[in-house]
Specification:
Strand content: over 45%
Largest sheet: 5 strands, mixed, barrel
Strand order of the largest sheet: 1-2-3-5-4
Order of helices and strands: EEEEE
Radius of gyration: 11 Å
CATH topology: OB fold (Dihydrolipoamide Acetyltransferase, E2P)
Structural class: mainly beta
Distance between the termini: 31 Å
Shape: globular
CATH class: Mainly Beta
CATH architecture: Beta Barrel
CATH superfamily: NigD-like N-terminal OB domain
Number of domains: 1
Length: about 80
């Protein structure tokens, strides 16, 4: 399922660490490994288009796994 979500990038200290997108509604998506490094900056606000991967499980299990297809940085620190 392809979705577009907007929120704030966060680094979670779970296991080896995980990246998350927290939407303005409070929903958390785990950003899958392999995402562009310019996206992965704590506190950065971004609009991400990607695919929710329901066929995999992650170690962090902080929310649905989101495979990033494209993104737009809205604001950064």
């Amino acid at each position: 399922m392809s979705i577009t979500v907007t929120g704030t990038i966060e680094r979670r200290d779970i296991g080896m660490g995980a990246w998350a997108l927290v939407t303005d509604d409070g929903e958390t998506y785990e950003i899958l490994k392999g995402a562009d490094k310019s996206l992965l900056k704590t506190g950065q606000k971004a609009k991400i288009t990607g695919q929710v991967r329901e066929d995999i499980m992650t170690m962090a299990m902080i929310g649905p796994a989101l495979e990033v297809k494209s993104f737009e940085v809205i604001s950064s620190h």
